[in-house]
Write a structure and sequence with these properties.
240 residues; globular; 44% strand; mainly beta; Pseudouridine synthase; 10-stranded mixed beta sheet
């Protein structure tokens, strides 16, 4: 797997993580460096690694102080009504699925504060797969599944999480009733998108989760602001 380097100096490395790649796999590719933060497997975009313990601690403190600015792009199902908004809802564990977190009623365990800002960039329609079921005219009818591409509503959002909880953006957008397109965990009943490449040599029916870490901004050791941006992946370009 080829990894694109977005930024590098003597202390910090920023890479363009492909969708479908585990951050643990990225860490193994750079055994001398330290992951500063994490991205979900299906999320693409900017990922920071520290080249030494001093840099790791320096960036970690900025994350803890919420001084690092992160911007994501997300394509969600449906047309989001408000042009911008804040989702201020604590996140806990899902009562039904140990893999999931929840911001809704019935969330269990420790409820951790979480705040997410969003802004609508574009409302659009795109072809998605709708499933139909036909019955065979037999004594014992059996179902035949067929798919048809139909135009469906989507919204492109710019998302800025103030906190950094596990699955925060995915959970908050589901709470907004506009889950991320292609999210198999939080949007399992969403209409499948066209098959899109995850990265070179890999394809999967239904495409990828449409969440991309667009940029990250932090201070270097000189006190200068550094902003690193990841270009929009071709699969998102194709969709929007």
């Amino acid at each position: 797997m080829k990894i694109k380097i977005l930024y590098e100096n003597r202390d910090i490395l920023a890479i363009d993580k492909p969708a479908g790649a585990l951050v643990d796999l990225i860490a193994k590719m750079y055994p001398k460096f330290i992951l500063v933060h994490r991205l979900d497997k299906e999320t693409s975009g900017v990922l920071l690694l520290a080249k030494n313990k001093k840099a790791h601690q320096f960036l970690k403190e900025q994350f803890q102080a919420r001084a690092i600015k992160k911007v994501y792009l997300a394509v969600v199902n449906g047309w989001v009504k408000n042009d911008r908004g804040i989702i201020d809802k604590p996140i806990g564990r899902s009562p039904k699925d140990f893999r999931r977190h929840s911001a809704g009623r019935g969330a269990r365990g420790e409820m951790r504060e979480a705040e997410t800002f969003y802004k609508v960039l574009k409302r659009f329609t795109a072809l998605a797969s709708s499933k139909f079921f036909l019955l065979r005219p037999q004594a014992e009818p059996s179902e035949i599944k067929i798919s048809k591409m139909l135009p469906q509503k989507f919204t492109l959002l710019e998302v800025r999480p103030k906190t950094g909880r596990t699955h925060q953006i995915r959970v908050h957008l589901k709470y907004l009733n506009h889950p991320i397109a292609g999210d198999k965990l939080y949007n399992p009943n969403g209409l499948p998108l066209p098959a899109l490449p995850l990265h070179k040599g890999r394809r999967r029916e239904g495409g990828r989760m449409m969440l991309h870490a667009k940029s990250i901004e932090f201070q270097n050791f000189k006190g200068e602001n550094v902003k690193i941006e990841s270009p929009l992946p071709k699969e998102l370009k194709k969709l929007i």
